[in-house]
Write a structure and sequence with these properties.
The chain is α+β, with helices and mostly antiparallel strands. It contains 18 helices and 24 strands. The longest helix has 20 residues.
């Protein structure tokens, strides 16, 4: 696979033809505007003459290279062809297209001299508009009176709880207060923030107003100051592990300071599927009434031998003993019982006829991929503050402080408001996550995937790893194999369970099925993406029955309903129509081969034991998908008690780490990643116990 270019800043120089009437169309000069894309700012810079756009420069460094990056070239061509008129977007790259179009419209309005002349006042009235968010449509109601916005609120949404809900609540209030669309997005919830802004923009246009009149820059007050503070323990990062550690320490009565660089808590926690390993938990035992003893979900002695068979001998440092996974499992069950005690809810366990089938796995309520982990994150964030933890949001830690002996004595943090915090502490716990969102760092440590974007939360930029390295910490498990899950092409909307909810087959750019995506799904998808023979394009093929299951997956209780509202999913009247439209020459043969195995009840050539029959009589559904990386598994060297180790193999006194900042604990045992949520919860819980014992 060719290395994808991550910087999408391209200058295009073309000479256009003069307008036939010779009259000036623009005021010659350079015009620049910026809008929010999928990953960050998208800037369009135009150089225009009297009658033509001469140069176009689009800077979109944070857009996904595989999708947004490929759209940039087409969008530039569209701008030059339009020469001041409306431009078309690019199918499959909605967020990038919208950002480029918005920035172009603003820049060309200035070139036409209309940005200051468009003084049309919005009409009085109430307008309910919508824009596609990360999960589904976000509906916003905006009311105007006497040329101003007098109320603005999100009417309804299905965004991720613990992430998108913050933006859905905060962005309308910011727009109302500042009478501007140019308010800051909620850090960590960019996609939802942009959806709200787009919906309000549509309301302004429907009301006959000028968008530029509501696009004034918003000035922020920054006052430089310095503050010295002291805590028993500093927790850096308020994600999965950080929330657990901080809350547990606050419960024990310690003076805890929490520093989170985003303005919201949660980290990756709200994005998880929300099921928890539960070794020896009383909660599960009370439900199972003895059955748990024969189930590896509860009985660690049954599960560890299974894990042992998955260890790669090349990476096995402990002769199959799995010390890191043992600590994870021992503590994950404790977390389940603790959650229940403090008010975190669980969906009903068990397998029910025609209903949910969660078995003995506790899923955070309301259920799998239904926002339970986000609700739990918000509960923990509130609980740690109620217990007295001092929490600083929008305040990244910039360095770790040490004494002359190399022991950690605190941190330095810089608030968005200009305050520098000089912090002293008996212990520092790093819970800053991985580094999937740091392209440069990712390319360095995973060169085999260089240039590929990681479908992770934007806060995963490796800050904790880099700061720990600066004081001598060692790293491990870098550069190993990374799994991928299925995402919607163009938006990276996660479809990680689609192979379970939607009976179908996945084909490549030629229309060929290529592997058994129902077994070792993440491994198969990763290898398929890296195999040039597949052409870098993938399509999920299914029938009407499967489409209905996609909308309402009873066995787990979640829905992918919104894919039917997006460009990546289309219905075709026949297999031939789909093959022709998408260039899938071998699609008919692939479906017929699959159906042959389905009818025979035999495993197919890829080892798929049960092949789904795809009924083509009424046509087929096709969702264009892309296998995406979703986390990094390398990280800081830690022992099983969360101490961060230096390059000499000694613990750095006063420094601890839990969660993805320490990499995958399965990798430390020699097994491929598999249980990141349980790892963060279990080791966050364990870190609190160890820190409390050692600073007492």
């Amino acid at each position: 696979m060719k290395k994808l270019i991550t910087s999408l800043c391209i200058m295009l120089v073309l000479s256009g033809c003069s307008a036939s009437n010779g009259k000036s169309k623009f005021t010659a000069g350079e015009y620049e505007a910026t809008s929010k894309g999928f990953g960050g700012d998208v800037t369009v810079k135009l150089t225009v003459g009297d009658t033509e756009i001469k140069n176009v420069e689009i800077t979109a460094d944070d857009e996904t290279p595989e999708v947004g990056g490929k759209a940039i070239e087409t969008l530039k061509e569209n701008i030059l062809k339009a020469n001041g008129d409306e431009i078309d977007g690019v199918s499959g790259a909605t967020f990038t297209s919208d950002a480029v179009k918005n920035a172009y419209n603003e820049a060309i309005a200035s070139a036409k001299g209309s940005s200051n002349e468009e003084t049309a006042q919005v009409k009085d009235g109430k307008y309910t508009t919508k824009a596609m968010g990360h999960e589904d449509w976000v509906y916003v109601t905006t009311q105007f009176k006497d040329g101003a916005i007098v109320s603005c609120s999100t009417t309804s949404h299905e965004e991720t709880m613990g992430i998108g809900n913050y933006a859905a609540a905060r962005i309308p209030a910011r727009i109302l207060e500042n009478q501007s669309l140019e308010v800051d997005s909620v850090s960590g919830a960019t996609v939802t923030s942009n959806a709200v802004k787009k919906a309000v923009k549509d309301a302004i246009e429907q009301a006959g107003g000028s968008v530029s009149a509501f696009s004034k820059p918003v000035e922020k007050q920054v006052v430089k100051s310095s503050e010295d503070v002291s805590y028993d323990v500093v927790v850096v990062g308020a994600g999965n592990a950080g929330l657990i550690t901080a809350t547990r320490l606050a419960e024990k009565g310690y003076n805890v300071g929490v520093f989170e660089k985003n303005e919201i808590p949660g980290g990756s926690m709200p994005t998880t599927y929300s099921g928890i390993m539960n070794s020896y938990s009383e909660t599960v035992a009370n439900f199972a009434l003895g059955d748990e003893k024969n189930n590896p979900s509860w009985n660690m002695d049954l599960l560890l031998p299974v894990f042992k068979n998955l260890i790669n001998p090349e990476y096995d440092r402990f002769n199959g003993e799995q010390p890191y996974q043992k600590v994870m499992l021992e503590n994950a069950g404790k977390v389940v019982d603790w959650f229940k005690d403090i008010g975190v809810g669980f969906a009903s366990m068990g397998n029910y006829e025609g209903g949910l089938s969660y078995g003995l796995t506790p899923y955070l309520a309301p259920g799998c991929y239904q926002g339970g982990a986000g609700y739990a994150a918000m509960l923990l964030a509130q609980r740690m503050e109620k217990l007295g933890a001092d929490v600083h949001y929008s305040t990244p830690v910039t360095s770790i402080s040490t004494n002359k002996d190399g022991a950690v004595t605190g941190v330095v943090a810089e608030g968005e408001d200009g305050t520098t915090y000089n912090v002293t502490a008996k212990a520092v716990v790093l819970a800053t996550g991985g580094f999937g969102a740091n392209q440069e760092m990712f390319d360095e440590y995973y060169p085999q995937y260089a240039g590929m974007s990681v479908n992770c939360v934007p806060g995963s930029t490796g800050d904790g790893i880099k700061m720990a390295q600066e004081i001598g910490a060692d790293i491990e498990c870098m550069g190993r194999f990374l799994g991928m899950f299925m995402s919607e092409y163009g938006t990276n909307y996660e479809l990680a369970f689609m192979h379970t909810s939607t009976p179908g087959i996945m084909v490549n750019a030629s229309g060929d099925e290529f592997g058994n995506i129902t077994a070792s799904n993440h491994t198969v998808l990763s290898k398929a993406m890296m195999d040039e023979a597949n052409g870098g394009e993938f399509y999920y093929i299914y029938d009407d029955e499967a489409a209905q299951k996609t909308r309402d997956f009873d066995a787990y209780g979640f829905s992918y309903q919104s894919i039917f509202e997006r460009e990546a999913t289309q219905h075709y009247d026949s297999v031939e129509d789909a093959a022709k439209a998408l260039g899938l020459d071998n699609l008919k043969d692939a479906i017929e081969a699959n159906n042959k195995y389905a009818m025979a009840g035999e495993p197919n050539e890829f080892g798929r034991k049960i092949c789904p029959y795809i009924e083509t009589r009424d046509g087929i559904w096709v969702t264009r998908v892309v296998p995406t990386l979703y986390l990094t598994t390398g990280g800081l060297v830690t022992d099983t008690d969360t101490h961060v180790m230096n390059k000499d193999g000694n613990a750095i006194k006063g420094l601890y780490a839990a969660g993805d900042v320490a990499g995958s604990i399965e990798e430390k045992d020699g097994k491929t990643y598999g249980n990141g949520f349980d790892q963060a919860l279990g080791y966050g819980y364990h870190a609190a116990e160890i820190v409390a014992e050692e600073i007492h």
